[in-house]
Amino acid sequence: MDRNTPFICALGDIGVDLVMGMLEQWPQIGTELILPRSELRAGCSAGNTVLALRHLGVPAHLVSAVGNDDFGVWLRAQFHGVEAHLATCDCASTVSVGLMHSCSERNFFTTEGHLAAFTLEQALEGLPEAVPGSLVLLSGVFLLPRLRQQYPALLSELRRRGYQVALDTGWPSEGWTEAVRAEVRGWLAGCDHLLLNELEVCQLAAVDTVAQAMPILQSWLRPEATLVVKAGARGALACRGTLQLSQATEAADVFDTIGAGDSFNAGYLAALLRGASLQQALASACRVATAVLTRFPRQGIRPGEFSQLLAQPA
Questions:
Q1: What is the predicted pLDDT for the residue at 167?
Q2: What is the pLDDT of residue 313?
Q3: Which residues of the chain have pLDDT under 70?
Q4: Are 138 and 166 in contact (CB under 8 A)?
Q5: In Å, what is the CA distance from 139 to each residue of 36, 50, 104, 198, 214?
Q6: How many C-alpha atoms does 92 have within 13 Å on its Cβ side?
């Protein structure tokens, strides 16, 4: 990667994902089901985003960690073609089993693993200095308890190093308590882009609808920052200052929705990196998410295969 040009850095969670499905109904305890599809792949939010950026042919830097087991060795090998700094934690790697349901919902079963041991010191050690215009995406914070404790310091250091900061919080395992809302609100002044889904914006703002939530969250962000709301099959909404936008997405036959928001993030940030307008970035994000989600298995996607998705007009 050319360090003289702006780039995207994903800082957060990677892990081992075993995706299986479809489930028609939850099985009775003690029984066995035969499922028609499965794929073992690198996953978690930062991992999915960086792999989607590789599909787009966009330079990216990954800062994360792996465990000191066979899965850790395997995980490192999955990010060939990506400039990655992966610390080794003295524990087993984090593993998730994702079960897909025929109704398009899913369940995750995730071990704490190495993500619970990833520290601020390890993150900063792998973080390159930013070229002006570079973007860093923070994701998976609630799976990173030691790093989460130091998030204010991390955000301060990212801005000192010259990054534009994008944040995708994910869903807290303890739920959106008042303490969690206050904690996240404290991070927002350090963000240039807040990328959440519909349920997350409502829970963070403690209101019932996206229309109610967006102005509340926008008031907590800096005036020039952008709020993006990912609305699944309906597309996305965004606001920046007085600008309010919406973007529809094309209908698609999707089996595996895991990583939908992460692929959206990749398309959005990659478009911004290339100078796209906010409307164009939303359109690119929707196209990229659709292209990734309609592929199963995903390991066969070639580097740069989706590069044309960023060139199409909004």
A1: 98
A2: 47
A3: 1-3, 254-256, 296-297, 311-314
A4: yes
A5: 31, 11, 23, 17, 20
A6: 8
Residue 104, pLDDT score: 72
Q: Say how far apart CA 197 and CA 133 lie, in whole Å.
A: 25
In the beta sheet, which residues pair with residue 107?
Answer: 99
Q: Which amino acid is at 92?
A: A
241: number of Cβ within 10 Å: 10
Which two tokens mark 95?
Answer: 């593993």
Q: Is 133 left (phi over 0), alpha (psi -120 to 50) or beta?
A: left
Using H for helix, E for strand and C for coil, what is the string for the chain? CCCCCCCEEEECCCEEEEEEEEECCCCCCCCCCCCCEEEEEEECHHHHHHHHHHHHCCCEEEEEEEECCHHHHHHHHCCCCCEEEEEEECCCCCEEEEEEECCCCEEEEECCHHHHHCCHHHHHHCCCCCCCCCEEEEECHHHCHHHHCCHHHHHHHHHHCCCEEEEECCCCCCCCCHHHHHHHHHHHHHCCEEEEEHHHHHHHHCCCCHHHHHHHHHHHCCCCCEEEEECHHHCEEEEECCEEEEECCCCCCCCCCCCHHHHHHHHHHHHHHCCCCHHHHHHHHHHHHHHHHCCCCCCCCCCCCCHHHHCCCC
Question: Within a 10 A sphere around the Cβ of 26, how many other Cβ atoms?
Answer: 10
**Does residue 273 contact residue 263 with C-beta atoms inside 8 Å?**
no
**pLDDT at residue 233 in the model:** 87
pLDDT of residue 297: 64
Instruction: Report the pLDDT value the prediction gives residue 312, as an integer from 0 to 100.
Output: 53
Closest CA to 164 of 190, 144, 128: 190
Place of tokens 């959206």: 264
